[in-house]
Amino acid sequence: MTTRAFAAIEPPEPPPCIDHLIVLAADLASGVQWCERQLGVTPAAGGEHPLMGTHNRLLNISSPAHPRAYLELIAIQQGATKTIPGGAKRWFDMDDSRLQRQVAQHGPQLIHWVAAVPDMVARCAALAAQGLDRGAIISASRATPEGLLQWQVTLRTDGQRLMDGCLPTLIQWGATHPCANLPASGLQLHRLTLRHPQMAALQAACAALGLLPQVVLEAAPAPELLAQLGTARGPVCLTSRPDMDARRAV
């Protein structure tokens, strides 16, 4: 009887999907208070990003439609010095003075979202073909009680989000995704809507990334991100518009 060796079959990578929402706070303490006030829950512990001089707290918002989604509450870490070389700006426009003033005046704010993609090089090339520079692919990590969390993420040297935050930053995780160790929060992401005056360009970009119909696109005179969440208190809608109520009816 002869025996044959079979090559191990790697599990397929998940398709492009909504990975997480970015809520910017002036500091994590005020961010936690905002979260408890608006969503009725306390975010789980996060960690520090030495590369950027930032730190975070996390909330599991996974749902049947978005099984790997979470919310990242992020702030510049006071006293920390970012180590990213070349004088690059922090991610997500966190060094932008106008955005900092908005958050200081109105409190923590939904500013951006991140999409997980299986082939970052190909997805960045697809955006570049449309004249969109998503930035370089860099490696990042942070320590957790479960071990080192590692990922690759796109980053422009100017730190810009692009299309007023509606065009996602791209991420590809290592062996572990944050949701694997995040406790259930009682929150679920139901829908992410992107509103923008340049709808044709945004639609083409999201299609090139394989993110349709996971996100809802609407033409609007002013840019806005709307995240509809289910909570124990009922539906909550987070908005990127600082002049709008974060608890606007869904």
TrEMBL record:
InterPro entries attached to this UniProt entry: Glyas_Bleomycin-R_OHBP_Dase, Glyoxalase-like_dom
Residues in the signal sequence: none
Residue ranges of every copy of the Glyoxalase-like domain listed in the record: 18-209
Record Pfam families: Glyoxalase_3
Protein name: Glyoxalase-like domain-containing protein
Organism: Verminephrobacter eiseniae (strain EF01-2)
